[in-house]
Amino acid sequence: MSQMYIARELWAFMRERKKFWMLPMLVVLVAIGGLLIFAQGSVLAPLIYTIF
Questions:
Q1: Which residues contact 48 (CB under 8 A, 6 or more apart)?
Q2: Alpha-carbon 18 to chain mean position
Q3: Sign (positive/negative) of CA torsion 44, 45, 50, 51?
Q4: How far is CA 40 from the centre of its chain?
Q5: CA distance 27 to 15
Q6: What is d(CA 2, CA 50) in angstroms, rounded to the nearest whole number?
């Protein structure tokens, strides 16, 4: 299953059910997840892990 397929299905769900309030939450979750994955192998890892 490709990631574009999942994103397209999620967008179709939000558009159909008028759940656009979910979009900011999803963006924040993806940003935090990306930050944690990026920091996993860097020198910033101890700093970021203390924040969360």
A1: 35, 36, 39
A2: 20
A3: positive
A4: 16
A5: 16
A6: 33
